[in-house]
Amino acid sequence: MKKIIAASILSADFTRLAEEIRAVEDAGADWLHVDVMDGHFVPNLTIGPPVIEKIKKVAKVPLDVHLMITNAEETFQDYVNAGADFLTIHVEACKNISKTLQKIRGLGVKASVTLNPDTPLKSILPTLSFVDMVLIMSVNPGFGGQSFISSSLDKAKKLAEIRKQKKLSFLIEMDGGIKTDNIAEVSKSGVDVFVVGSGIFKTPDYRKTIKSLKEKIRL
């Protein structure tokens, strides 16, 4: 599987977001990762469908939209309409997780499930036969710039083993604290998609940083 760098715009300069998107795409980012937070499921508030719709008009790469919200079952259609290519929902915040994921897929969008660092992997096992991606959180969701939780690597390894055993093809994504100094280890755990926020946007040269990230995941 191709390894993918998803630049998390939560760490971008929102006063010049269009410029930041163009810059990170030109520097080699494969996807844009968009964090939606509602101030309820997580203690922070970010953006919603109207902003995502504007981002979609600027972006040339796929939008990987991560819903950290309590009402994804009722509102996922809004994010599909706004232009999400991948749409991720939390197992902890969705009562009918399987049904909701299948509805997302039915709308022609890639469906993804995610779980927090303290949530056991068994909670998402029933969804694996019909998801396009599983996002493993390697920080507690809600804020950017947190330190990487190393136990997430074990979760990724177990998930990669399950994928192989069951002959499934979903992508494994990891989000939180990924930078040039640990991305090689994350890649070896079986991860395919690497969400990088401050590890790109807080560096002086996006092109140089993304080139380094890609070199390390090819090792």
Notes on the structure:
α5 links the parallel β6 and β7 (171-175). An eight-stranded parallel beta barrel has the order 1-2-3-4-5-6-7-8, surrounded by five helices. The protein contains eight helices and eight strands, in the order βαβαβαβαββαβαβαα. It is an alpha/beta fold. Helix content is 35%, strand content 20%. The model has no long low-confidence stretch (mean pLDDT 95). It has helices spanning 17-26, 49-58, 72-82, 97-106, 152-165, 183-188, 198-201, 206-217; strands spanning 4-8, 31-37, 63-68, 86-90, 110-115, 133-137, 171-175, 193-196. The chain has a single domain (4-217), classed as Alpha-Beta Barrel (TIM Barrel).
Uncertain ranges: none
Average pLDDT metric: 95
The CATH superfamily turns out to be: Aldolase class I
| Distinct helical segment count | 8
Domain unit count: 1
> How much β-strand is present in the residues?
15-25%
Number of strands: 8
| Strand line-up in the sheet with most strands | 1-2-3-4-5-6-7-8
| CATH fold field value | TIM Barrel
Elements, N to C (H/E): EHEHEHEHEEHEHEHH
Query: Largest sheet at a glance?
Result: 8 strands, parallel, barrel
Walk me through the topology.
Elements: E1 4-8, H1 17-26, E2 31-37, H2 49-58, E3 63-68, H3 72-82, E4 86-90, H4 97-106, E5 110-115, E6 133-137, H5 152-165, E7 171-175, H6 183-188, E8 193-196, H7 198-201, H8 206-217
